[in-house]
Structures are given as C-alpha cells and as structure tokens.
# Entry
Amino acid sequence: MDIIQEIAELKAARNAVIMAHNYTLPEVQDIADFSGDSLELARIAADCQAKVIVLCGVRFMAETAKILSPDSIVLHPAPESGCPMADMADPADVRKFRENNPDTLLIAYVNTTAATKSEVDICCTSGNAEKIVASLPAGQKVMFLPDANLGGNLVKKLDRPMELWNGCCPIHNRITPDDIRQARQDHPGAVVMVHPECRVEVTALADEALSTGGMLKFVADSPASEFVVGTEIGIIHRMKKENPDKKFYPLENNPVCEDMKKITLDKIASVLRDLSCQVQLDEWAIAKARKPIEKMLELSK
Ligand code: 13P
Ligand code: SF4
# Structure
C-alpha cells in the first residue's frame, strides 16, 4: 500500500484530522484536511471535534492545538521541531519582567511556548496583531514579545509606543532591504509581499506586509498576476495550486525554515499507527495558557 493511502486509512480508523501550516512540505500540505496560518489553525483546533489531531507545524502550534482542544489526542509528528523565536522568551524572564513592571500589559506573539503563554495577558498572531494592539486603551503600557520585528512594524503602523522584547525569527530577520531591491529589479511588474516578521526597513520597501493566510487571500483577490513572496518558500506551493494562472517569485535569499520541513509523510503515518508523539501538557498548564489565547480569539472575531 502506498503511504498516502495508508495515511487515509489510518486517519479514518482513528477519527483523525490532519492540520498543516502553510510552510510545511508540499506533500504534507496536499494530504492535510486543513492548511492555514497560525490563527486559522488555532481557530480550527478550538472548534475541532475529532478524537485525534495531527498537527503538522512547529511545537508551539501543536501545543496551541492541545490547549484549545484538550480532550483530543494531539500528535506532533516531529517533536524535535521547535520555533527558534519561541525559545527567545524564557518563561522565568517573562515572569521577572512582570514582577518588576506590574502596570505593563504583556502581549505575546503566539510563537511562544505554553509556559511563556501562562505568564502573559493576551496572545496574538501575525494575522490579528494589528487588531489586538489597536483595541488597547491609549496610554496603556505594553511589552510585546518575543518578536521585535513584528512589534516594531506595529509600533510604526499604529503609531503606538510599545516596549519590545529582544527576539526575532532568524529566517525572516535575514531578509535585507537589498533582497527586496533585487526582487523589484528582477520582477518589475510584480507586487512585493513580505511577512511582518521581517525587519521594519524591509517591510517599508514592500507593497504589503501580511501573515501567510493574509498573503493567500491577497493573491486570490488581487487583479495582479505576478507576486514576489517575501517569506518562507513553503507557501509558494499553495499559492501556485490555488492560482495556476499567476506567477510567484521567491526572494534570492531563499528563506527556508528547516523546522517546518521535519514533518514528513512517513512520520505522519508512524504517529497515526501507534499514537506516538502525543503533546503532553498538564491540566493546570492548559488552564493558564488558555486564558491569553481565548482573549485573542475573542478580540479577533
Ligand atoms: P503565520 O501565522 O503568518 O502563518 O506565521 C507563522 C510563522 O511562524 C511565521 O514565521
Ligand atoms: Fe519560527 Fe521563523 Fe520558523 Fe516561523 S519561520 S516557525 S517564526 S523560525
């Protein structure tokens, strides 16, 4: 039996759904029941009735699914695949900051560990960060963590001061203004999109700064036919599949998140066979980390 057929049979036998982030390998996206950005995956997990969720993405995404769907068995087929940015906000450091700054509201990008989420007031994703920050009362002191690039882009766009944690996505942070200039020179008619995890001086040169889900929607709705894609290259698979008549160009810099590529069809079949690689969080941790995520879902309706 081939691996795709085996996954389909195991999935039916286990009453499982497969969710995949937009950066995962093309063959993983192709067998997923749902593909999406962090916000879309969180919303699907919150509504999910399936007995088993196979979360194809990095660890914080699998933890978020478990937090929002605690009665489901959540399988993370590559438990070693983390997000380096999530590890830049240590929960003990965040707690210390909170103790020293009791009147500051803590907003955590969803790219954080469950332990760090337990220490903050609200979560956000790149898809709803603008709406969430804009909803806060003027004058409220805010610490935004861990992505200083996403935070810096929000400060600029909303003209709202916030303290920024010293963290970033190493993949998006490597994209430079020269990469954007080069792309414009190579593809003069194309719309230039970047992810808001890029540096402020990079987003300033782009036409659009959007979450991965935002990019997919923008491309589908746009009358333009050519796009420069300033984010992890995995998303180009879905863009081409959903828009066969449009053209998509990666940056020369070729941003690849190796952690996202660790999920393979073999590993998905393996966890469905023996229900291994279950996300384990104790009830107390789930209850604490759930609050800022629920607040986020409420504010971004
Ligand atoms: P999105 O929520 O835009 O998919 O971003 C997640 C991520 O990890 C980007 O690097
Ligand atoms: Fe984390 Fe960056 Fe990979 Fe996204 S692309 S999962 S932020 S390391």
